[in-house]
Amino acid sequence: MKNFFALFLFIGFHVFAQITTQPKDVLVKDPYFTPTQNQPQGEKVRLIHSDFFQKTAEKYNGNPFFSGNVQFEHQGSLLSADEVIFYEEQNFVKAIGNVKLQNADGSVITSGEMEYDGNTQKGIARKNVVLTDPTQTIKTETMYYDRVSNKAYFNTGGTISDATNTMYTKSATYDLGTKMIDFTGNVKINNPEYTVEGNNIKQNQNTNTADFFGPTTITNKKNPSILVYTERGSYNMNSKEVYLKKNSRIHYNGKILTGDDMYFNQITGFGKAKGNVTLRDPKEQRYMKGGYGEIYEKKDSAMMTEKPYAVKILEKDSMYFSAEKLISYRKIDDKDPLKKKSFLRAYRKARMFKSNIQVRADSLSFNETDGIMHLFGSPIAWSGEKQVTGDKIEAYFDTEKEFIDSLKVIGNAFAISKADSLNLKDEFNQVKGKLMTVYYDKNEIKLAKVIGNAQAITYADDQNEKTKEVERIGVALSTCGTIEAEFEDRKVQIISCNIGANTDVFPMSKISREKRFFPDFNWNTKDRLRKWQDIFMDTPEYEEIKYESDDKLYDAAQKAINDAKAKEEAKKPKRIRK
């Protein structure tokens, strides 16, 4: 097809010298044939054969025409038609009826009519124009061609098809030298595997790549929900790789990936994005954001890094996650192979914020379908004025009611509750042991069950019969095999203490501050997440709350004891050394 324009050159006008023409009317040519300044005279073509030669005043304005097996030749290209009209002085010809232009390289153009200007070396083919070469076929109603620039153009709508693709477009310009086709106006590329639609596409026939310069969509035919949208990008049709640069989206498995600079491989299902990356999952009501992201369509998984975070959208109280790396994926349900479960994992410096529970850990794994969250690496969870720590924590959520049901703490379980959230006294209820299950009621910690070396420090209150005010009466120290502790807003009550149970209750005047805290007491107000934006920080570095120690009764009791001891000592006779 590289000699596409040269095919028409021979339509020049090197006919027999004895033929002279004197047409009655001046030839009116299409404005497309207007010559450039100082354009030289074009080379003439040579008549090979015609059955008849005529020139009459009644036909073709007195210009000579050839008919019957007409053939013209130019530099190895052959034109045949039912009739050819020759305008000798203008170096211009018209071919009419069953026009066929065959080039030496094997490319062929057929049409109902053709015109060629030997001076400008431009031609126009009209009526059912078909251009074929060894690799493709172009069909349109009117085609313009220019031998000097080596380009062909049509704007009457047409198709370009090859072994695998069929392209539909309003207009196109084809550079025969570079094999570049510039499509404009409602472009559609139809392939057995995908469809490309846009309004400005440039395709390189040598490399089989396409560049997009406007809104463009690539749709998977087998699964139309898998599609790529961009307003600036390129597509390698051989490797099925897409490079996206502007306002781009990758739709797959009900998810949408966006970013400033993106890539997607339709064969492997791998994609990546850089800059302002967002992965939306409308079905799971979740989205992830970060500076860099990757997707694995066939595995239905994704990864996000560079300050990533995820939001699980709930009707009343959303969940916010962050870490150095976030991974989301789906896998087949073990109990029902027709269903899939969704998971979210956070690695290194994992954070989660929900209004009724906040967590920090080295990593976490969240089964979104079942509402089960696993926390690893020094996990800590806060709910109201209560804190839970341990070697590992499992949190169970009611996915329908959006409540947290319970926490299971495995190894070094430790629950702390402010004895009275209305003051700043250093009084904390504490329950600890090997294993602990914490139960919630309407998003508030209600009950803790501890198994193995269970211990508790709880504050006991009672109502003054005269003043009707609640007064602190003492502290209970409990050690049991198992403990059940009920949490109220301002107190913790031991309702069960079994297996080697031992409980001592000390009035406030009989217990020192040191005995009111377990050695590994770790109440943390500096690192607690108090708003969802805190998930982005290693620590919010909130100012540590300073609690006041109220040891008046104990100090007074100790003073009385010490005074009594001093009096007793004073009564004893003193030895006098002689």
UniProtKB/TrEMBL annotation:
Keywords: Cell outer membrane, Membrane, Signal
Keyword Membrane assigned: yes
Domain Organic solvent tolerance-like N-terminal: 43-197
Keyword Lipid metabolism: no
Signal sequence, start to end: 1-17
Alphabetical list of Gene3D superfamilies matching this protein: Lipopolysaccharide (LPS) transport protein A like domain (2.60.450.10)
One Pfam family it belongs to: OstA_2
InterPro entries xrefs: LptD, OstA-like_N
GO cellular component, one term: cell outer membrane
PANTHER family cross-referenced by the UniProt entry: LPS-ASSEMBLY PROTEIN, LPS-ASSEMBLY PROTEIN LPTD
Name of the molecule in the record: Organic solvent tolerance protein OstA
Organism whose genome encodes this protein: Chryseobacterium koreense CCUG 49689
